[in-house]
Structure formats: C-alpha cells, structure tokens
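agent: user wants the structure for Chaperone protein HtpG from Xanthocytophaga agilis. delegating to structure tool.
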Amino acid sequence: MTVTEEKGTISIHTENIFPIIKKFLYSDHEIFLRELVSNAIDAVQKLKRLSSLGEYGGELGELKVKVSFDEAAKTITVSDNGIGMTADEIKKYINQIAFSGAKEFLEKYKDAGEGNQIIGNFGLGFYSAFMVAERVEIQTLSFREGAQAARWASEGNTEFEITKGERTERGTDIILHVAEDSKEFLDKFRLENILKKYSRFMPIAIEFDGKVINNTAPIWAKSPNDLKDEDYLAFYKELYPFSEDPLFWIHLNVDYPFNLTGVLYFPKLKNDLSLHREKIQLYSRQVFITDEVKDIVPEFLMLLHGVIDSPDIPLNVSRSYLQADSNVKKINTHITKKVADKLSELFKADRKGFEEKFDDIGLFIKYGMVADDKFYEKAKDFVLVKNTDNQYATIEEYRQKVEPVQTDKEGSVVMLYTTDPGKQDTFIQSAKKRGYDVLQLNGILDSHFINTLESKFEKVSLKRVDSDTIDKLINKEETISGILNDEEKKNLKEWFEQTLNDKNLSISVSPLPTDELPVTITLPEFMRRMQDMAKTGGNPMFGSFPTTYQVTINENHTLTQEILKADEAKRRQLIRHVYDLALLSQNLLSGSHLTSFIQRTLDLTK
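agent: tool returned. relaying tokens verbatim.
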C-alpha cells in the first residue's frame, strides 16, 4: 500500500463549514481536547477489539494515549498507538466531513459483543481542532501489514495535502499548530485541567507531563458484586474531595431497554436546596459530557451526587448538551423508581437506622413527594414525621395515633404542627395539656409538603399550633362557660381597640380555660401558609397581603377581671401589659416595646 502524493479538496457541502465549526458547533473551545482524546481512545479500543477477534496478530504493547505540548513551537500533540490509518482511510474518514469511522466500525462488528466501547459518533470531532489551530497535521501508520506511513495537513480551509509520513510505529499523531488567539491552551495547567475535567475516567490510560492522569476503571463500570463499601466511599472522595461521607448510595446497572450505569450518592442535606445542585456528572462511555442533568434526572433528584453514564442518551452533534428523546424520559423514570425502591428497602430492612438518617434525607424525600406523583405513591409509605418529643412515625401511623383524640366535629383528623418549638412553646404546652400531639415541620419545604399531604389524604388537615386558640384549632363543639355578660364583653373589646389602636388587629372576647393566657395573638393558618409559600418560591402575591392578627381575650382569666374593675389609667396599663405578654409568647415583642414591657412589669409589682 504505497502512499501517493496528492492534493485535493475536502468533500463538504459548503465552504463555510470551518467558521461554523469554530464559532457555533462547539461553543466551548476547550472541547477540542476532549474530542481529539476521544478519537485517540477509539483508535486504541478498535485495535483491542480486532486483536480479540483474531484480526490483528501483532503485539499490542502498552496501549495508551499521550498528550503533549511545545510552547516554543506553538504545538499541541495528541498521540495514540491504536489502529492508525492508511492514506485511503484518511481520505475516507478525514476528508469526508461527518463520515464517522466509529459508526462504520460499530456496524461492521455489531454482533461481536464489545463494539459499544467505541466513543465516536458523528465524525466531526476531529475538526474541533480548528477551533484553536491555524494548521493541523496528521502523522499516522496503519496496523495493517505492509502499510506505509501517511501525513495529512490542512490550514482550516477546504484544501488538504497527503504525503508520505514519518511515523515508524503503529498509531496516529494529531499535531495542532495553535493560532495566535488560542495561545492560552499552550499552558501545562490549562491542558491538565481540561484533561481531568473531560477525560479523568476514560477507559485507556492518558499520559500527560510524564504521568497517567485518568482512572481507567471507575466503579460505575464495575459489577456491584465486586465492590465493597470502602470502594464507594473512596470514589465519592475522588469526586468530591471536601465533602462529608455520603449516607448511602445506589449502583445503577441497566442493559434493557436502554444502557445505563452509574452511582448515585445520598449526601447529608442541609436545610438549603441551592447548596446541593449540579453535583451529578453525566458521561457517555466514560467521556464527561456535562453536569447539567435536569432532563435526565428529575428536579428533586438533582440533590443527589454521583455519576450517570449512558451511550443511549441523545446528545447534540458537539456532544455538549442533551437533545429531546423518548430514551431520556425512560431513563428519568427508571432512576426515580430505583431511588424510591432503595429508600423503601432501607426503611424495611432497618427502621431504626432509617430514622437516624431521616433528618439528613427528609428534605430530599419531601421534595420528591411534592414534585412527583409517582414518587409520592412510593414515598408515602416510608416518609417520616417527627413530633416535639422526637418520636418518628409514618404518615399513616401518625394519623392512626392522633385520630382518637384529635378528630374535630366534622370528622376530620387535625394534625397540629410547629415550625419553631422554642418560639411556639406556649402553644405547644397548651396543646399537650389537652392530650394533643404536635409535629415538628420546620423545614424549608414543609409548607409545600403540608399542602401535598392535605391534597392526598381525605379527612385530614394540618394546622400550626399557634394559628388559633386550641379549642378552635380542634373544634369539638365542647362548650366552655364564660363569666362575662354581653355588656362586659362589649366594653372589654372596645377598650382593647381604643388602647391598642391598630387596624391590623381583629379583636374578640371568648371563654377559654383559666390556665390559658389572658390574651392570645394568632395569625390564621391560611395567611401563614400564603406567607410561607411566598418565602419558598410560591406566588409572590401571597406575601403582599396585609397581615391581620387575631387577638382573643380570655374572658375567664383573672387578669381580665382586674381590667374590668380598674380605673382608666390602670386599665390602659393592664391592657397594654397582657397584650405585650401575648406578643412575647409569639416572639413578636422587641426593641422599645420590650423595654417598656420590662419597665411596666417592674412598676406593676410595686
């Protein structure tokens, strides 16, 4: 196979293909190195495959790809010792843009079992070199017996030349003569960082600056049966060196109806969704593609960390982002199911251990229940709620627990909750005096979670423990006798309105137990929810409504009797004082009002 010197024109449909490649096809110029290294890996993988099939009988030697640069000569070179090319193959695979050698190879060996290890797909990756190079040269020698070395060169236009090459050993060198506007890539640290970003898990050793920079056998490419916990933890540290150890993980290994491998880790979630996003990396045959995986992974699962690898994920021509495809939806659904199954398995196998982890994973589970109905159906059986005594229960267990005591006159089970046990302790203790239980729902998504639960459960409502007086929160039509007549109630209400002089207060007089506060201030449940929804990304209009507090005067309290008997000056002082007590119980008293309250307390004790 003699190399004949030749000049010609690259077979493409438009003379403007190179500007398109440089400016539009690959928006990120560093991608050139990923593409060239991927092509080199392909060349080595093909040789391995041909050797295993008996179609190459020579010594394989140490198969690897080498990346080097020469700052003085302004060159970057990607070398491999794979199958190489003949002059005819150069004309076929290089001069005809978008003719994919990998695609042809896969077709030829599709029944041989391991062809899917080939990375290339579109036949355009080589031309990404012209994003940074003013001239590109190929030096190559085919593995075929009797082949002659060949050289190809082009200056980024449609003209090329093929001459005899200088390479004496099987394989290919791609030599980039770097353009003036791309000199930034003639830097050791820049190149090494790009290689580590895109090629750190490629399946063939990549040598740079005298050392191999990649892990050729990441754990997601291995069988779960061959791995121990320490292997998964070590790989997590490799991905996220400064993170705490994960709680547990899922090893994905699917070959039908699509190919998918990967490892997803459950991190310890803090009460902040923004800290955990964009931690899943997407690969295609061990080539890094992106950490933007919102189409592959449901929104709520983006809180997980780890790696997903699939050759069946449809990418655009530049392998930079996902394209819409039915496989994406299938993979999305499968991952959701695997995560739900794993959580269910952990819950059933070790309830105590699951409870111990729940504070770290509860945010994630609730997010999934709010966002995905299918996930909700599975998660409702293992999601836990915790009461103020730090006891855990599933939703159904808890409903059955409180049903005998906390069912109102309409037959609805009322679940009481607190968003701040410390600040709302007065109301919690009031509920406990009546034998009621109170949940802790103080997470950033709990306002949405509460709405989801109410929409799914019939005859169940959730009410914040400080959103009304306890007898109204769980209205059982049990009447409490009041000791005031209508005239006294009328006077009491008017005096409070005149003294407090606040249009955002709705004042009423009610008979409450004598051990309740003389005055209770509450914000109605619906208004609290609107405000909470506005804070967590709901409709901002919800937070714009004026806040109207309900002020309930306990007509049976001894201090109420004193107010009725006092002269006007004393009466105003007492009204202000019991109102401030109510504010204090809701953590609403501060600044000068708190100072006045303290001084008034001292004056009243004289």
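agent: one observation worth passing along. The mean pLDDT is 85.
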